[in-house]
Structure formats: structure tokens, C-alpha cells
Amino acid sequence: MVGLASIPRRTLLVVAVISGVLTLVLALKLRAIDQHLKPYSIVEYEFAWSAECATKMFMKWDKDGMEAARDSLRYDFPFLLAYSPFVSALVLLAARTRKLTALGAGLTVAPFAAAFLDVLENVALCRVLDLSQAPPERLLQFAALMAGVKFLLLIASVLYVLFVGLPALVTRLRARG
């Protein structure tokens, strides 16, 4: 964490604010697109796993829903470029509380690893949409595995921020008050 520790706190806060705003804006756009995928969601598509399940989704979505799924995957690329520095900056700020610092240093790279897995998942899911007449089960399973590990990495990072960083922030604010 020596190299990461040298990043000024103010810089991390600026990164967190800017990338946090971008994350929020893109999340709202993705949520709006997701409304066109009902009764399913893009997350359910990420975890479709089987050709049978994907085919059911494609039949419900029809042409408009399939295009909405493509739009969601397209918007997910800038979204992953926003959420990874946002979560990483928060983890690094939390790691500076001197509690579980080694864990925080390790988790600082987790959001970027998650973003890489997200790219692989998105490429696989786009290809499945291209081959929607006969969805390749191996690509669906690959995408589901990438999504699963991605979410685990992000959940671990967020839990670290919530259970290490947030209590330290509350303690600091109480001490000032």
C-alpha cells in the first residue's frame, strides 16, 4: 500500500466524487433501459446460464427488448469505467483508517478486476445476442461465471467500505462534534 498511500486524500475525494456522479448518472440510464426488459432484467440475462433460459428471455423481449439489452450492454462499458475508480477510491480512503489496512490495500484493485471481468461478460453476452437463434450455452455459462466473480469482488469492496470506513468516519465526526 506504500504507493497507494502516497495518493493525497484530496485527490481520492475528487476521484470519488467525479466517478461517483458518473456512476449515478449511468446507473439511472441503465435502470431506465432495464424497464424495457421486463419481465426480466439485464442481471437475470447475465446469469441466464442455459440456452433454454436465454431463449425464453429473447422470446419475451422480441426485437425491441433485444435492442434494449444491446443498449444496456453498450452503456455498461462507460459504467464500468466509472464504478471501478469510484469504489476503489472509497476502499483506499477506508483503508487509511488503519483498520484492516492490508485487506483494504488488496481490495483497492478488486473494482478494477471486477471491471475487467465485466468487459469479458459483456462481450460474451453481446455475442450471444448476435447468435440469439441458437444461443451458445458455453458463452452464457462463461458470462455467468464472470458476473458472479465480478459481483463478489464488488460486494467485498463495498462491505469493506461500509464496515471499516463508515464507522471510522462516524467516529471522526463525533470527535469533532
Describe this structure in words.
With 177 residues, the chain is mainly alpha-helical. Helix 4 packs antiparallel against helix 6 (110-130), helix 4 (51-95) runs parallel beside helix 7 (137-176) and helix 6 runs antiparallel to helix 7. It has helices at residues 2-5, 9-34, 42-46, 51-95, 101-107, 110-130, 137-176. The chain has 7 helices and no strands.
End-to-end C-alpha gap: 31 Å
Main structural class: mainly alpha
Low-confidence stretches: none
Mean pLDDT: 92
Radius of gyration: 19 Å
Give the DSSP E fraction (strand runs of 2 or more residues). under 5%
N-to-C order of helices and strands: HHHHHHH
The total of beta strands comes to: 0
How would a textbook summarize the main sheet?
none
If helices are DSSP runs of H or I spanning 4 or more residues, what is the number of helices? 7
What is the approximate shape? Answer: elongated
Instruction: Give the % helix.
Output: over 70%
Summarize the SSE layout with pairings.
Layout (H helix, E strand, L loop, with lengths): L1 H4 L3 H26 L7 H5 L4 H45 L5 H7 L2 H21 L6 H40 L1
Helix pairs in contact: 2-4, 4-5, 4-6, 4-7, 6-7
